[in-house]
Amino acid sequence: MVPILIVEDEEAILTGLKYCLEQENFLCYSATCGRDAIDIISRKEIDLVLLDLNLPDMNGFSVMEEMKNQKDVSIIFLTANLEEVSIVKGLDMGADDYITKPFKTRELISRMKAVLRRNQKNATNLIHLGNVLIDLNSAKVLKNGHDVMLTALEYKILLTLAMNPNMVFTREKILADIWDVNEEYVNDNTLTVYIKRIREKIEDDVNHPKIILTVRGVGYKIGEIS
Fold it and tell me: Max CA-CA distance within the chain?
């Protein structure tokens, strides 16, 4: 479970967010004021903070500054303020993203996972796809800690998708990206076979894949998993 901190002084929003995020296997801590949030950051291991800009005791910028002085934690601002200057200030100070109220929970979760993946990848050169791990340094793929033997082409296809988790790749785009691997030619029909082989090696249930999803009529994308 990914430990996160929700800093929000509106009880209804806080309660709703906690419920929804816990269903997505996030471990949720919460605070309704800046001082409590800073105290939690000092005592707990937190991977991501959802931080309301307008708090009763101090503003979100000050809270973020104190948090960042303690540890390098990812922060997404929750704000009703649409002024560009506030958004730019937050990003310049080190926020990873922002989302304006009211927002859809699914969009928030998607943005949270994108931030976690991006920061995790940048920090360690590791990409986590559920129980599958891609080690970019060694070009290895592990499932539940065990080596997954992929061919060069299979690895290239998986990496193309995994490096861009929010993007839907057309079949043509994938084919263009893997053209030069071992000078092997891959046509559209062969790509289907390769996707099937990769799924057989990394998915828990090939008939109901969660890592490599088919976007009907378009191509493929990485599923929203953590």
Answer: 62
Q: Are 181 and 151 in contact (CB under 8 A)?
A: no
Q: Are the beta carbons of 96 and 119 closer than 8 angstroms?
A: yes
Residue 139 near residue 155, CB atoms below 8 Å? yes
CB 224 within 8 A of CB 109: yes
Q: Residue 218, exposed/middle/buried by CB under 10 A (0-12, 13-18, 19+)?
A: exposed
The pLDDT tens digits of the residues spanning 95-132 come to: 888 888 888 888 999 989 888 877 765 555 778 898 89
The arrangement of strands across the sheet holding 146-147 comes to 126-129, 132-135, 140-143, 146-147
Alpha carbons 220 and 116: distance in angstroms, whole number: 21
